Description:
Helices cover 8% and strands 43% of the residues. It has helices at 3-19, 191-194; strands at 26-28, 30-36, 43-46, 50-54, 58-63, 69-74, 86-92, 95-101, 110-116, 121-127, 134-141, 144-150, 170-174, 180-185, 201-204, 210-213, 219-224, 233-239, 249-250, 258-263, 268-273. It starts with a helix and ends in a 7-residue tail after the last strand. By secondary structure, it is mostly beta strands. It has a five-stranded mixed beta sheet with strand order 1-18-17-16-15, with no helix packed on it. A four-stranded antiparallel beta sheet has the order 2-21-20-19, with no helix packed on it.
Amino acid sequence: MNIRYSFFMLLLAPLLACSEQAPPSSLDAQVLGAYPAEDAFQAVAVDADHFYAINNFRIGRYEKVSGEFQESWDGVSDKTGSIIHLDSAMVYEGLLYAAHSNFPQWPMASSIEIWDTRSMQHLRSHAFPEPLGSMTWLDRHDGYWWGGFGNYDRIIPPRLQAYGKTENTLVVKMDDEFNILEQWRLPEELLPRLRPMSNSGGSWGGDGYLYLTGHDHPEIYVMTIPEAGQTLRWETTVIVEGFDGQGIAWDRDEATSILWGISRGDAEVWKLGMPSISLP
C-alpha cells in the first residue's frame, strides 16, 4: 500500500468516526406529566385546552390539565377505509391538521387530513400529486406550512428494495395551498440515528429552532435552516429518558417552554419541560 495514502487514511479515520456520532453537546428535558391515552401510538397535537392522541386511524381528544378523555374520531367505525396511517398532527385556528400516508403500501402516497377540533368531524383532505416520500409531520411557522417526507432503509416484503432510503428524507416549506416552495435534506451525520426508519416528528419552537424526532431513540434534534445550501444544520440534541421519538408538538399557549410527546410503549402522552437553547 502506498505510504502517503496510508498516512492520509490515518488522518481521515477520526473524521469519519466523528461523522457517525451525535454532536458532543446535549441537553435534558424534564417530564412534567404523563397521561394514559389509548391512541398515543404515533403522535400528539395540542391546543389551549386539549391534547390529541394520534393512532394510525384514530384520534382521541383529552382535557389538557386533567388528562380526562372526552371524544374521539375513529376511522374504523367511520368505515371510509381511506385513513390508514396517520402520523404527526398540529392544531391551527380550531382545525387539526394531520400528516397521512399509505405506508407501507407502494407506490408511496401522502395527504394532509383536516378535522374540526370541537366536533371531531373530518372535514377535508389535500392529496399530494407527486409525494416526495411518506408525509410524517406538519406544522405552521412564520406564515408558512412546513412538513417532513420520510423515506426508509427498511425493506418491506414482498419488495426487495428499501422503502425510499432514509437519506432521501426531506423537510419542506409550503404555501397556504400546500404547494412546496423549498426543501432541505437532513445532515448526513444525523442519518445513523434515524436508520432504518426516518424522521417521524417535527415542530417549530418559539425560540426559532426546528425540533425533529426519529422513530425510536429518546432524542429530539434541534435544527436550523442554513443560510446557504440544501442541508439542515444539526445544532444540538435534547435527551428525554423513556421517550420513543415519534410525533411532537410545541405548546404555543404556554408561557414556558412546554413540548408534548408520547411514550409509545406505555401508551402515554408526556408533557415535557424543555431546556433553553443557547447557541453561539
